[in-house]
Amino acid sequence: METPLVSEANSPAVATRSREIRWWRALVPIAVIGIVALIPAPAGCAPHAWYYFAIFAGVITALVVEPLPGAAIGFIAMTLVIVLARWVLFSPADLAKPDFKLAASSLEWALAGFSNSTIWLIFTAFLFALGYEKTGLGRRLALILVKALGRKTLTLGYACVLTDAILAPFTPSNTARSAGTIFPLVRNLPLLFDSYPNTPSARKIGGYLMWTTFAATSVTSSLFLTACAPNLLATEIARKVLKVDITWKQWFFASAPFSLPLLLALPLLVYVFYPPQIKQGSEVSDWAASELKQMGSISRRELTLALLVLLAIVLWIFGGQFVEATTAAFIVVSLMLVFGVVTWNEMARNHAAWTTLIQFATLVMLAGGLSRTGFIKWFADNVAARTGGHSPTVVLVALTSIYFLAHYMFASLTAHTTALLPVMLGVGAAIPGMPLDKLALSLALTTGIMGVITPYATGPGFAYYDSGYLPSTHFWGLGALFGLLFLGALLLFGVPLLLL
Questions:
Q1: Coil, strand or helix: which one is 79?
Q2: Cβ atoms within 10 Å, residue 175
Q3: Average model confidence (pLDDT) for the chain?
Q4: Which of 101, 208, 222, 456 could join 276 via S-S bond, C-beta 3.0 to 4.6 A?
Q5: Measured between alpha carbons, how far is 395 from 403 in angstroms, rounded to an integer?
Protein backbone atom coordinates (compact mmCIF):
# COMPACT_ATOMS: atom_id res chain seq x y z
CA MET A 1 0.00 0.00 0.00
CA GLU A 2 1.37 3.40 -0.98
CA THR A 3 2.19 5.70 1.90
CA PRO A 4 0.38 9.04 1.60
CA LEU A 5 2.55 12.13 1.37
CA VAL A 6 0.40 13.91 3.98
CA SER A 7 -0.67 11.91 7.00
CA GLU A 8 -4.09 12.41 8.54
CA ALA A 9 -2.57 14.00 11.64
CA ASN A 10 -0.76 16.59 9.51
CA SER A 11 -3.46 17.11 6.90
CA PRO A 12 -4.69 20.65 6.05
CA ALA A 13 -8.13 19.81 7.44
CA VAL A 14 -6.68 18.80 10.82
CA ALA A 15 -4.44 21.87 10.87
CA THR A 16 -7.45 24.09 10.18
CA ARG A 17 -9.43 22.47 13.00
CA SER A 18 -6.44 22.97 15.31
CA ARG A 19 -6.33 26.69 14.47
CA GLU A 20 -10.06 26.98 15.06
CA ILE A 21 -9.69 25.34 18.47
CA ARG A 22 -6.80 27.66 19.30
CA TRP A 23 -8.81 30.76 18.33
CA TRP A 24 -11.76 29.55 20.38
CA ARG A 25 -9.51 29.11 23.38
CA ALA A 26 -7.97 32.54 22.83
CA LEU A 27 -11.36 34.26 22.67
CA VAL A 28 -12.55 32.91 26.02
CA PRO A 29 -10.01 34.75 28.26
CA ILE A 30 -10.38 37.91 26.17
CA ALA A 31 -14.15 37.73 26.69
CA VAL A 32 -13.65 37.27 30.44
CA ILE A 33 -11.46 40.37 30.62
CA GLY A 34 -14.00 42.39 28.63
CA ILE A 35 -17.03 41.25 30.63
CA VAL A 36 -15.43 41.86 34.03
CA ALA A 37 -14.02 45.24 32.94
CA LEU A 38 -17.45 46.38 31.70
CA ILE A 39 -19.06 45.60 35.06
CA PRO A 40 -19.00 48.78 37.19
CA ALA A 41 -16.42 48.60 39.97
CA PRO A 42 -18.09 47.55 43.26
CA ALA A 43 -18.49 50.14 45.98
CA GLY A 44 -15.19 50.78 47.71
CA CYS A 45 -13.08 49.19 44.96
CA ALA A 46 -10.98 51.66 42.97
CA PRO A 47 -11.59 51.51 39.19
CA HIS A 48 -7.92 50.78 38.41
CA ALA A 49 -7.96 47.86 40.90
CA TRP A 50 -11.11 46.46 39.28
CA TYR A 51 -9.59 46.72 35.79
CA TYR A 52 -6.50 44.94 37.06
CA PHE A 53 -8.67 42.18 38.51
CA ALA A 54 -10.32 41.82 35.09
CA ILE A 55 -6.92 41.13 33.51
CA PHE A 56 -6.01 38.72 36.29
CA ALA A 57 -9.30 36.82 35.82
CA GLY A 58 -8.54 36.58 32.11
CA VAL A 59 -5.06 35.23 32.83
CA ILE A 60 -6.44 32.50 35.10
CA THR A 61 -8.97 31.57 32.40
CA ALA A 62 -6.19 31.43 29.81
CA LEU A 63 -4.12 29.14 32.03
CA VAL A 64 -7.07 26.74 32.20
CA VAL A 65 -8.03 26.67 28.50
CA GLU A 66 -4.40 27.09 27.28
CA PRO A 67 -4.56 28.91 23.92
CA LEU A 68 -0.78 29.25 24.36
CA PRO A 69 1.78 27.69 26.71
CA GLY A 70 1.61 29.00 30.27
CA ALA A 71 4.91 30.89 30.07
CA ALA A 72 3.71 32.73 26.95
CA ILE A 73 0.43 33.63 28.68
CA GLY A 74 2.27 35.05 31.68
CA PHE A 75 4.69 37.03 29.51
CA ILE A 76 1.89 38.50 27.36
CA ALA A 77 -0.15 39.41 30.44
CA MET A 78 2.88 41.07 32.03
CA THR A 79 3.41 43.11 28.86
CA LEU A 80 -0.27 44.07 28.74
CA VAL A 81 -0.18 45.39 32.30
CA ILE A 82 2.98 47.40 31.57
CA VAL A 83 1.34 48.99 28.53
CA LEU A 84 -1.88 49.75 30.42
CA ALA A 85 -0.19 50.55 33.74
CA ARG A 86 -1.57 54.08 33.83
CA TRP A 87 -5.14 52.73 33.97
CA VAL A 88 -4.83 49.32 35.65
CA LEU A 89 -1.81 49.33 37.96
CA PHE A 90 -1.30 52.75 39.50
CA SER A 91 -3.82 54.87 41.37
CA PRO A 92 -4.45 58.56 40.60
CA ALA A 93 -2.54 59.34 43.81
CA ASP A 94 0.52 57.51 42.48
CA LEU A 95 0.34 59.31 39.15
CA ALA A 96 0.03 62.69 40.89
CA LYS A 97 3.33 62.36 42.78
CA PRO A 98 5.88 64.88 41.45
CA ASP A 99 8.76 62.40 41.30
CA PHE A 100 6.68 59.50 39.90
CA LYS A 101 8.02 57.94 36.69
CA LEU A 102 5.38 55.76 35.08
CA ALA A 103 7.58 53.84 32.62
CA ALA A 104 10.31 53.03 35.14
CA SER A 105 7.88 52.10 37.91
CA SER A 106 5.78 49.78 35.75
CA LEU A 107 8.86 48.00 34.39
CA GLU A 108 10.34 47.66 37.87
CA TRP A 109 7.08 46.10 39.04
CA ALA A 110 6.99 43.71 36.06
CA LEU A 111 10.50 42.39 36.68
CA ALA A 112 10.10 42.07 40.45
CA GLY A 113 8.94 38.46 40.12
CA PHE A 114 12.39 37.40 38.96
CA SER A 115 13.85 38.39 42.34
CA ASN A 116 11.60 35.96 44.22
CA SER A 117 13.77 33.36 45.98
CA THR A 118 11.15 30.60 45.78
CA ILE A 119 11.09 30.87 41.99
CA TRP A 120 14.82 30.28 41.80
CA LEU A 121 14.52 27.37 44.23
CA ILE A 122 12.01 25.77 41.86
CA PHE A 123 14.41 26.44 38.99
CA THR A 124 17.21 24.61 40.80
CA ALA A 125 14.85 21.68 41.41
CA PHE A 126 14.78 21.14 37.65
CA LEU A 127 18.59 21.25 37.58
CA PHE A 128 18.69 18.63 40.33
CA ALA A 129 16.36 16.52 38.19
CA LEU A 130 18.73 17.01 35.26
CA GLY A 131 21.56 15.63 37.39
CA TYR A 132 19.47 12.58 38.32
CA GLU A 133 18.82 12.00 34.63
CA LYS A 134 22.36 12.53 33.31
CA THR A 135 24.11 10.45 35.95
CA GLY A 136 21.58 7.62 36.00
CA LEU A 137 21.06 8.00 39.75
CA GLY A 138 17.39 8.80 39.26
CA ARG A 139 16.84 5.64 37.26
CA ARG A 140 18.74 3.56 39.85
CA LEU A 141 16.68 4.89 42.77
CA ALA A 142 13.46 4.49 40.80
CA LEU A 143 14.35 0.88 39.99
CA ILE A 144 15.06 0.19 43.68
CA LEU A 145 11.67 1.63 44.61
CA VAL A 146 9.88 -0.34 41.88
CA LYS A 147 11.67 -3.53 42.83
CA ALA A 148 10.48 -3.17 46.43
CA LEU A 149 6.97 -1.78 45.89
CA GLY A 150 6.23 -1.91 42.19
CA ARG A 151 3.97 -4.95 42.17
CA LYS A 152 1.03 -2.59 42.70
CA THR A 153 0.60 1.00 41.60
CA LEU A 154 -1.18 1.81 44.85
CA THR A 155 1.82 0.80 46.95
CA LEU A 156 4.02 3.05 44.80
CA GLY A 157 1.64 5.88 45.61
CA TYR A 158 2.01 5.19 49.31
CA ALA A 159 5.80 5.11 48.93
CA CYS A 160 5.72 8.64 47.46
CA VAL A 161 3.52 9.87 50.33
CA LEU A 162 5.71 8.21 52.95
CA THR A 163 8.86 9.81 51.51
CA ASP A 164 7.37 13.28 51.88
CA ALA A 165 5.99 12.56 55.35
CA ILE A 166 9.42 11.45 56.61
CA LEU A 167 11.16 14.61 55.39
CA ALA A 168 8.36 17.07 56.19
CA PRO A 169 8.94 17.72 59.94
CA PHE A 170 12.57 18.67 59.27
CA THR A 171 12.27 20.67 56.02
CA PRO A 172 10.57 24.05 56.46
CA SER A 173 10.71 24.73 52.71
CA ASN A 174 8.12 22.53 51.00
CA THR A 175 9.61 23.63 47.68
CA ALA A 176 13.03 22.30 48.69
CA ARG A 177 11.47 19.12 50.02
CA SER A 178 9.05 18.30 47.23
CA ALA A 179 10.35 20.05 44.11
CA GLY A 180 14.03 19.80 45.02
CA THR A 181 14.25 16.34 46.57
CA ILE A 182 11.20 14.18 45.80
CA PHE A 183 10.16 15.36 42.34
CA PRO A 184 13.53 14.55 40.67
CA LEU A 185 13.15 10.98 41.92
CA VAL A 186 9.45 10.46 41.21
CA ARG A 187 9.73 11.75 37.65
CA ASN A 188 11.88 8.71 36.86
CA LEU A 189 9.25 6.21 37.98
CA PRO A 190 6.72 6.52 35.10
CA LEU A 191 9.42 5.95 32.49
CA LEU A 192 10.00 2.47 33.87
CA PHE A 193 6.38 1.66 32.99
CA ASP A 194 6.56 3.17 29.48
CA SER A 195 4.55 6.15 30.68
CA TYR A 196 5.98 9.21 28.96
CA PRO A 197 5.25 12.94 29.44
CA ASN A 198 3.12 14.87 26.96
CA THR A 199 1.80 11.68 25.37
CA PRO A 200 -1.36 9.59 25.85
CA SER A 201 0.78 7.14 27.84
CA ALA A 202 1.10 9.75 30.60
CA ARG A 203 -2.13 8.38 32.08
CA LYS A 204 -0.69 4.87 32.40
CA ILE A 205 0.87 5.70 35.75
CA GLY A 206 2.68 9.04 35.48
CA GLY A 207 -0.34 11.26 36.13
CA TYR A 208 -1.34 9.22 39.16
CA LEU A 209 2.11 9.32 40.75
CA MET A 210 2.65 13.03 40.05
CA TRP A 211 -0.68 14.14 41.51
CA THR A 212 -0.37 11.84 44.53
CA THR A 213 3.08 13.21 45.34
CA PHE A 214 2.07 16.84 44.86
CA ALA A 215 -1.11 16.54 46.91
CA ALA A 216 0.81 14.77 49.68
CA THR A 217 3.11 17.78 49.97
CA SER A 218 0.11 20.01 50.61
CA VAL A 219 -1.16 17.74 53.39
CA THR A 220 2.20 17.31 55.13
CA SER A 221 2.71 21.07 54.93
CA SER A 222 -0.36 21.47 57.13
CA LEU A 223 0.34 18.47 59.35
CA PHE A 224 3.63 19.75 60.80
CA LEU A 225 4.33 23.31 61.92
CA THR A 226 7.91 23.05 60.65
CA ALA A 227 6.98 21.53 57.25
CA CYS A 228 6.23 24.87 55.60
CA ALA A 229 7.82 28.26 56.31
CA PRO A 230 4.53 30.26 56.11
CA ASN A 231 3.22 28.14 59.00
CA LEU A 232 5.83 29.79 61.22
CA LEU A 233 4.91 33.17 59.79
CA ALA A 234 1.25 32.50 60.62
CA THR A 235 2.06 31.71 64.24
CA GLU A 236 4.11 34.89 64.53
CA ILE A 237 1.26 36.99 63.09
CA ALA A 238 -1.17 35.32 65.54
CA ARG A 239 1.18 36.20 68.36
CA LYS A 240 1.39 39.85 67.33
CA VAL A 241 -2.26 40.40 66.38
CA LEU A 242 -4.08 38.28 68.98
CA LYS A 243 -1.37 37.65 71.59
CA VAL A 244 -1.89 33.92 71.00
CA ASP A 245 1.05 31.49 71.17
CA ILE A 246 0.86 28.29 69.09
CA THR A 247 3.39 25.57 69.92
CA TRP A 248 4.56 22.71 67.68
CA LYS A 249 2.58 20.29 69.85
CA GLN A 250 -0.60 22.36 69.72
CA TRP A 251 -0.31 22.66 65.95
CA PHE A 252 0.19 18.92 65.44
CA PHE A 253 -2.70 17.82 67.65
CA ALA A 254 -5.00 20.38 66.02
CA SER A 255 -3.98 19.26 62.52
CA ALA A 256 -3.74 15.50 63.03
CA PRO A 257 -7.52 14.78 63.20
CA PHE A 258 -7.96 15.84 59.57
CA SER A 259 -4.43 15.75 58.09
CA LEU A 260 -3.50 12.20 59.11
CA PRO A 261 -6.68 10.62 57.66
CA LEU A 262 -6.17 12.64 54.48
CA LEU A 263 -2.56 11.51 54.20
CA LEU A 264 -3.46 7.85 54.76
CA ALA A 265 -6.35 7.99 52.29
CA LEU A 266 -4.65 10.15 49.66
CA PRO A 267 -3.16 7.46 47.37
CA LEU A 268 -6.51 5.65 47.42
CA LEU A 269 -8.45 8.87 46.73
CA VAL A 270 -6.29 9.66 43.72
CA TYR A 271 -6.62 6.02 42.66
CA VAL A 272 -10.39 6.54 42.54
CA PHE A 273 -10.63 10.06 41.10
CA TYR A 274 -7.63 9.93 38.73
CA PRO A 275 -7.06 6.20 38.22
CA PRO A 276 -3.89 4.89 36.60
CA GLN A 277 -4.23 2.56 33.65
CA ILE A 278 -1.59 0.23 35.08
CA LYS A 279 -2.87 -1.29 38.31
CA GLN A 280 -0.32 -3.98 39.05
CA GLY A 281 2.25 -6.27 37.52
CA SER A 282 4.68 -8.53 39.31
CA GLU A 283 6.72 -8.81 36.13
CA VAL A 284 7.62 -5.13 36.40
CA SER A 285 9.17 -5.70 39.82
CA ASP A 286 11.15 -8.65 38.48
CA TRP A 287 12.21 -6.61 35.45
CA ALA A 288 13.42 -3.80 37.74
CA ALA A 289 15.59 -6.28 39.64
CA SER A 290 17.20 -7.48 36.41
CA GLU A 291 17.76 -3.88 35.23
CA LEU A 292 19.47 -3.04 38.51
CA LYS A 293 21.75 -6.00 38.04
CA GLN A 294 22.66 -4.81 34.54
CA MET A 295 23.43 -1.29 35.81
CA GLY A 296 26.11 -2.72 38.08
CA SER A 297 27.64 -0.85 40.98
CA ILE A 298 27.09 2.85 41.51
CA SER A 299 29.29 5.09 39.36
CA ARG A 300 31.50 7.95 40.52
CA ARG A 301 29.12 10.57 39.05
CA GLU A 302 26.13 8.94 40.74
CA LEU A 303 27.95 8.86 44.06
CA THR A 304 29.00 12.49 43.68
CA LEU A 305 25.44 13.58 42.96
CA ALA A 306 24.12 11.53 45.87
CA LEU A 307 26.53 13.27 48.24
CA LEU A 308 25.61 16.68 46.85
CA VAL A 309 21.88 15.99 47.22
CA LEU A 310 22.53 14.84 50.79
CA LEU A 311 24.40 18.10 51.39
CA ALA A 312 21.39 20.06 50.09
CA ILE A 313 19.01 18.17 52.40
CA VAL A 314 21.29 18.74 55.41
CA LEU A 315 21.50 22.47 54.63
CA TRP A 316 17.72 22.70 54.16
CA ILE A 317 17.03 20.91 57.43
CA PHE A 318 19.75 22.21 59.73
CA GLY A 319 21.25 25.24 58.00
CA GLY A 320 18.30 27.60 58.12
CA GLN A 321 20.03 29.94 60.57
CA PHE A 322 23.12 30.22 58.40
CA VAL A 323 22.07 29.84 54.78
CA GLU A 324 18.73 30.45 53.05
CA ALA A 325 17.15 27.49 51.20
CA THR A 326 17.67 28.97 47.72
CA THR A 327 21.28 29.88 48.51
CA ALA A 328 21.87 26.30 49.63
CA ALA A 329 20.46 25.08 46.31
CA PHE A 330 22.73 27.50 44.40
CA ILE A 331 25.73 26.13 46.28
CA VAL A 332 24.86 22.55 45.35
CA VAL A 333 24.14 23.40 41.68
CA SER A 334 27.50 25.20 41.50
CA LEU A 335 29.22 22.13 42.93
CA MET A 336 27.41 19.98 40.35
CA LEU A 337 29.11 22.09 37.67
CA VAL A 338 32.48 22.07 39.42
CA PHE A 339 32.52 18.28 39.78
CA GLY A 340 31.19 17.63 36.27
CA VAL A 341 27.90 16.06 37.34
CA VAL A 342 26.28 18.16 34.60
CA THR A 343 27.67 20.69 32.15
CA TRP A 344 26.56 24.27 31.61
CA ASN A 345 25.43 23.42 28.08
CA GLU A 346 23.15 20.72 29.49
CA MET A 347 21.70 23.23 31.96
CA ALA A 348 21.26 25.83 29.21
CA ARG A 349 19.31 23.31 27.11
CA ASN A 350 16.97 22.45 29.99
CA HIS A 351 13.81 23.83 28.40
CA ALA A 352 11.54 22.93 31.32
CA ALA A 353 13.68 24.79 33.86
CA TRP A 354 13.85 28.07 31.94
CA THR A 355 10.19 27.92 30.91
CA THR A 356 9.13 27.37 34.51
CA LEU A 357 11.31 30.26 35.66
CA ILE A 358 9.61 32.68 33.27
CA GLN A 359 6.12 31.32 33.85
CA PHE A 360 6.25 31.36 37.63
CA ALA A 361 8.03 34.75 37.83
CA THR A 362 5.35 36.42 35.72
CA LEU A 363 2.49 34.79 37.63
CA VAL A 364 3.92 35.72 41.02
CA MET A 365 4.20 39.28 39.79
CA LEU A 366 0.66 39.28 38.39
CA ALA A 367 -0.83 37.88 41.60
CA GLY A 368 1.13 40.41 43.64
CA GLY A 369 -0.51 43.16 41.61
CA LEU A 370 -3.83 42.43 43.33
CA SER A 371 -2.30 43.68 46.57
CA ARG A 372 -0.43 46.46 44.79
CA THR A 373 -3.64 47.93 43.40
CA GLY A 374 -5.57 47.61 46.66
CA PHE A 375 -7.93 44.89 45.41
CA ILE A 376 -7.01 42.52 48.26
CA LYS A 377 -7.65 45.22 50.87
CA TRP A 378 -11.06 45.95 49.35
CA PHE A 379 -11.85 42.23 49.35
CA ALA A 380 -10.86 41.84 53.00
CA ASP A 381 -12.83 44.93 54.05
CA ASN A 382 -15.87 43.60 52.20
CA VAL A 383 -15.61 40.30 54.08
CA ALA A 384 -15.38 42.16 57.38
CA ALA A 385 -18.50 44.16 56.60
CA ARG A 386 -20.54 41.02 55.94
CA THR A 387 -19.60 38.96 59.01
CA GLY A 388 -21.06 41.16 61.71
CA GLY A 389 -24.09 39.92 63.64
CA HIS A 390 -23.36 36.19 63.27
CA SER A 391 -22.37 33.65 65.92
CA PRO A 392 -18.65 33.03 66.60
CA THR A 393 -18.85 29.49 65.18
CA VAL A 394 -20.48 30.62 61.94
CA VAL A 395 -17.95 33.43 61.54
CA LEU A 396 -15.01 31.10 62.23
CA VAL A 397 -16.18 28.60 59.60
CA ALA A 398 -16.94 31.39 57.11
CA LEU A 399 -13.58 33.11 57.61
CA THR A 400 -11.70 29.81 57.26
CA SER A 401 -13.52 28.98 54.02
CA ILE A 402 -13.09 32.46 52.54
CA TYR A 403 -9.43 32.56 53.57
CA PHE A 404 -8.84 29.19 51.88
CA LEU A 405 -10.66 30.00 48.63
CA ALA A 406 -9.05 33.43 48.40
CA HIS A 407 -5.78 31.66 47.63
CA TYR A 408 -6.84 31.54 43.98
CA MET A 409 -5.70 35.18 43.96
CA PHE A 410 -2.23 34.47 45.35
CA ALA A 411 0.88 32.87 43.88
CA SER A 412 2.60 32.43 47.22
CA LEU A 413 1.61 31.00 50.58
CA THR A 414 3.82 33.62 52.23
CA ALA A 415 2.17 36.50 50.35
CA HIS A 416 -1.29 35.17 51.22
CA THR A 417 -0.41 34.80 54.89
CA THR A 418 1.15 38.25 55.07
CA ALA A 419 -1.67 40.06 53.25
CA LEU A 420 -4.83 38.36 54.50
CA LEU A 421 -4.18 36.62 57.82
CA PRO A 422 -3.89 39.80 59.95
CA VAL A 423 -7.12 41.11 58.41
CA MET A 424 -9.02 37.86 58.98
CA LEU A 425 -7.77 37.64 62.56
CA GLY A 426 -8.87 41.22 63.14
CA VAL A 427 -12.32 40.52 61.69
CA GLY A 428 -12.79 37.45 63.88
CA ALA A 429 -11.48 39.15 67.01
CA ALA A 430 -14.20 41.79 66.68
CA ILE A 431 -16.93 39.13 67.10
CA PRO A 432 -18.06 38.86 70.77
CA GLY A 433 -17.30 35.46 72.26
CA MET A 434 -14.87 34.40 69.51
CA PRO A 435 -12.26 31.92 70.89
CA LEU A 436 -9.13 33.64 69.60
CA ASP A 437 -6.77 30.67 69.91
CA LYS A 438 -9.18 28.47 67.93
CA LEU A 439 -9.61 31.16 65.30
CA ALA A 440 -5.84 31.51 64.83
CA LEU A 441 -5.36 27.75 64.52
CA SER A 442 -8.27 27.26 62.14
CA LEU A 443 -6.98 29.89 59.73
CA ALA A 444 -3.31 28.94 60.03
CA LEU A 445 -3.97 25.24 59.41
CA THR A 446 -5.20 26.02 55.89
CA THR A 447 -1.74 27.26 54.88
CA GLY A 448 -0.46 23.95 53.53
CA ILE A 449 -3.61 22.37 52.15
CA MET A 450 -4.59 25.47 50.14
CA GLY A 451 -1.45 24.88 48.06
CA VAL A 452 -3.21 22.11 46.13
CA ILE A 453 -5.77 24.29 44.34
CA THR A 454 -3.71 25.85 41.51
CA PRO A 455 -0.37 25.31 39.75
CA TYR A 456 0.93 28.56 41.25
CA ALA A 457 -0.58 28.17 44.73
CA THR A 458 2.66 26.90 46.26
CA GLY A 459 6.26 26.55 45.17
CA PRO A 460 6.34 22.84 44.20
CA GLY A 461 3.20 23.18 42.05
CA PHE A 462 4.91 24.24 38.87
CA ALA A 463 7.36 21.36 38.95
CA TYR A 464 4.48 18.89 38.78
CA TYR A 465 2.39 21.10 36.48
CA ASP A 466 5.22 21.26 33.93
CA SER A 467 6.14 17.59 34.30
CA GLY A 468 4.12 16.69 31.18
CA TYR A 469 2.04 14.15 33.10
CA LEU A 470 -0.76 16.46 34.25
CA PRO A 471 -2.48 18.37 31.43
CA SER A 472 -3.65 21.86 32.36
CA THR A 473 -7.36 21.04 32.49
CA HIS A 474 -6.65 17.93 34.57
CA PHE A 475 -4.47 19.87 37.02
CA TRP A 476 -7.04 22.61 37.54
CA GLY A 477 -9.88 20.11 37.86
CA LEU A 478 -8.00 17.97 40.35
CA GLY A 479 -6.94 21.10 42.23
CA ALA A 480 -10.57 22.18 42.65
CA LEU A 481 -11.70 18.69 43.65
CA PHE A 482 -8.95 17.99 46.17
CA GLY A 483 -9.10 21.56 47.43
CA LEU A 484 -12.74 20.99 48.36
CA LEU A 485 -11.88 17.61 49.89
CA PHE A 486 -9.08 19.12 51.98
CA LEU A 487 -11.17 22.10 53.10
CA GLY A 488 -14.10 19.78 53.86
CA ALA A 489 -11.87 17.56 55.99
CA LEU A 490 -10.67 20.59 57.97
CA LEU A 491 -14.21 21.90 58.53
CA LEU A 492 -15.73 18.50 59.33
CA PHE A 493 -12.98 16.93 61.43
CA GLY A 494 -10.55 19.65 62.40
CA VAL A 495 -12.66 22.65 63.37
CA PRO A 496 -15.28 20.76 65.46
CA LEU A 497 -12.55 19.20 67.61
CA LEU A 498 -10.91 22.60 67.95
CA LEU A 499 -14.13 24.04 69.33
CA LEU A 500 -14.65 21.31 71.93
A1: helix
A2: 32
A3: 86
A4: 208
A5: 12
